[in-house]
Every structure is written in structure tokens, then in C-alpha cells.
């Protein structure tokens, strides 16, 4: 295929594309030139660092992977494959996400008191027959669910760190989601200890497992592993491959059809970053993998 044939679609693409070989720029589409604030004709053939002017981007382009970086006043989602660097401006999405975070914290503050009052009143009620007892039990569960949702909005900034076993989180998680887990095949292998905010990590697991239960297929696997000075915590399922994994972490994106605002994975990434780590999603073999990593130290 001639260079003109494969570059033509990229000339009008919103996503930036930089092609490099032997650490030198081969091709730069207009979107990438704008995002990097360079003249693409002048940087063609020059060393990669002269076009990127950012050592983090250069390292990503050479090693591969994905990252979200602030570069020259923009927030860029970058994906690197051998010889290719894709760039997408997510500045506006990040701004909307921060606004959603601020609004969520405000809502959490306003809703805590009335929800606590409702829980107290429900506990004080004495049902007269089994039918009323069943309805009361459902109301208590709904209030508990709303309380967890409110707390998830309030825990975007992790709190006190402590050392604990990840298995302890599973005991809490399985109790909170016992109705959702009934009839599902979930395999758990959480054999590590971490030092982190347990409430923030519990919320991460809640969101990841909820995502797998909604959109994935059994068996669902929760596992932890340590590699390269990091603890990885993953939820894996055998759902169909997804067209775009990185984009699911943006506000308003969901992994499948359904209701909701698509904030679950966005909150996962924000919480993981607050713990000094990060979040990722990928296809590995026959599994969709959604996970977070935390520094061992």
C-alpha cells in the first residue's frame, strides 16, 4: 500500500497519529501536529524528541503502553504501539470529570444526614405481618444501597492508609453484593496484603465487580498479583472483546447497553490515582481484564 493510501484517512482524523522509525518522525497528521504544537513539515525526519518535546511521551512511544499526560496545557490520552503513537485531547472530558467530582462531593454531603435518618426510622418500625416485613427489608436494602452510592461519591480522595489482607475486602464485598452474586460463578484469589485506604479500595472492587456482573460472562475472576514493585488487583470475565478499553475510563462511557451515567470506571481510575497507582483495561486471551495497580511500598 502506498503512503498516500494509508495516510489519507488520518489527514482529517480527530485523533492524532505520529509514525516513527529508528527514533525519527516518519509521519505526523494534522491533529497530532496541533496537539503537539509543531509544524509537521519541519519535524518530519527529525529525532522523535524534537517533535514530542516531552521525555514522558518519548519514553511511552518507544516502550509502548497507554497513559494520560498533561502536555503543553492539554490533557492527552496517549497510546503507543510499535512505531505508532496515538494522541487524543481529553482536556474537556477531564474538566467535566472534575466538575462531576465536585458535584458528587456536594451531593454526598447533602444526602448523608437524611439517609442516616431514614435508616434509623426504618430500624424503628415493627412489621405486623410477613408481607410488611418483606417490604421493610426491601426498603432497608435500598437505603443501604443509596448510602453506599453516596459514600462512593465522597471517597474520591482516599483517606487513612492501613495494612490489611485483600481477602478481608472480599468478605465485606460478598456480604454487600450477596443478592447480585447469587447464581453467578465467581472465583477469588486475593492472597496479598496491601497498605492503602480500605474504603477506597473496597469502592474500587465494588465498581469493577459490578461492571463484570452487568456486562461480563462467567466465570468472573478476582485475583491479585505482585510484579515489578506493584500490586495488581484485577477483575476478569469472559465477555466479548470490546472495541475501546481506554475510552471506558472517560465520564459517560459504559462497557455495554444499560442504564446509568457511566461513571463507575472513571471513579475507579480517580480512586486508584489517589492511592498512588493507576487503572487499566485490556483483552488478555479470552478474558476482559479491568484492574488497578498500587505501589508495594
Characterize the structure shown:
This protein is an alpha+beta fold and 297 residues long. It is built from eleven helices and twelve strands. The protein has helices at residues 3-7, 30-36, 40-43, 48-52, 55-63, 91-124, 130-154, 166-176, 178-181, 198-215, 264-274; strands at 16-21, 24-28, 65-71, 74-81, 84-89, 162-165, 186-189, 193-196, 220-227, 230-237, 278-284, 287-295. Strand 1 and strand 2 form a beta hairpin. Helix 8 (166-176) packs across helix 10 (198-215) and helix 10 runs antiparallel to helix 11 (264-274). The longest helix has 34 residues, at 91-124. The chain is elongated, with a radius of gyration of 23 Å. The relative contact order is 0.08. Residues 256-261 have low confidence and may be disordered.
Q: What is the terminal separation in angstroms?
A: 49 Å
CATH topology of the largest domain: Heat Shock Protein 90
Q: For the largest sheet, list the strands in their spatial order.
A: 2-1-5-4-3
Provide the succession of SSEs. Answer: HEEHHHHEEEHHEHHEEHEEHEE
Please identify which CATH superfamily of the largest domain we are dealing with: Histidine kinase-like ATPase, C-terminal domain
Overall pLDDT level: 83
Pfam family, one: HATPase_c
Keywords: ATP-binding, Kinase, Nucleotide-binding, Phosphoprotein, Transferase, Two-component regulatory system
GO molecular function: ATP binding; phosphorelay response regulator activity; phosphorelay sensor kinase activity; protein kinase activator activity
Catalytic activity: ATP + protein L-histidine = ADP + protein N-phospho-L-histidine
Amino acid at each position: 500500500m502506498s503512503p498516500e493510501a494509508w495516510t489519507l484517512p488520518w489527514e482529517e482524523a480527530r485523533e492524532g497519529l505520529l509514525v516513527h522509525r529508528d527514533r525519527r518522525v516518519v509521519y505526523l497528521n494534522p491533529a497530532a501536529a496541533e496537539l503537539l504544537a509543531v509544524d509537521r513539515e519541519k519535524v518530519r525526519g527529525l529525532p522523535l524528541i524534537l517533535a514530542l518535546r516531552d521525555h514522558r511521551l518519548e519514553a511511552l512511544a518507544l516502550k509502548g503502553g497507554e497513559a494520560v499526560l498533561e502536555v503543553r496545557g492539554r490533557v492527552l490520552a496517549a497510546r503507543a504501539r510499535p512505531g505508532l503513537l496515538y494522541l487524543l485531547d481529553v482536556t474537556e472530558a477531564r474538566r467535566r470529570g472534575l466538575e462531576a467530582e465536585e458535584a458528587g462531593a456536594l451531593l454526598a454531603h447533602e444526602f448523608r444526614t437524611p439517609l442516616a435518618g431514614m435508616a434509623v426510622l426504618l430500624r424503628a418500625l415493627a412489621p405486623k405481618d410477613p408481607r410488611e416485613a418483606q417490604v421493610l427489608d426491601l426498603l432497608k436494602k435500598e437505603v443501604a444501597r443509596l448510602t453506599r452510592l453516596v459514600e462512593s461519591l465522597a471517597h474520591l480522595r482516599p483517606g487513612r492508609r492501613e495494612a490489611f489482607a485483600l481477602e478481608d475486602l472480599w468478605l465485606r464485598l460478598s456480604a454487600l453484593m450477596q443478592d447480585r452474586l447469587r447464581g453467578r460463578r465467581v472465583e477469588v484469589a486475593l492472597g496479598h496484603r496491601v497498605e492503602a485506604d480500605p474504603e477506597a479500595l473496597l469502592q474500587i472492587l465494588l465498581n469493577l465487580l459490578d461492571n463484570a456482573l452487568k456486562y461480563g460472562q462467567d466465570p468472573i475472576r478476582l485475583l491479585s498479583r505482585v510484579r515489578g514493585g506493584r500490586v495488581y488487583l484485577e477483575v476478569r470475565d469472559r465477555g466479548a472483546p470490546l472495541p475501546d478499553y481506554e475510552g471506558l475510563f472517560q465520564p459517560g462511557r459504559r462497557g455495554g447497553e444499560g442504564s446509568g451515567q457511566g461513571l463507575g470506571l472513571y471513579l475507579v481510575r480517580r480512586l486508584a490515582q489517589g492511592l498512588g497507582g493507576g487503572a487499566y483495561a485490556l483483552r488478555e486471551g479470552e478474558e476482559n481484564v479491568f484492574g488497578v495497580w498500587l505501589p508495594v511500598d
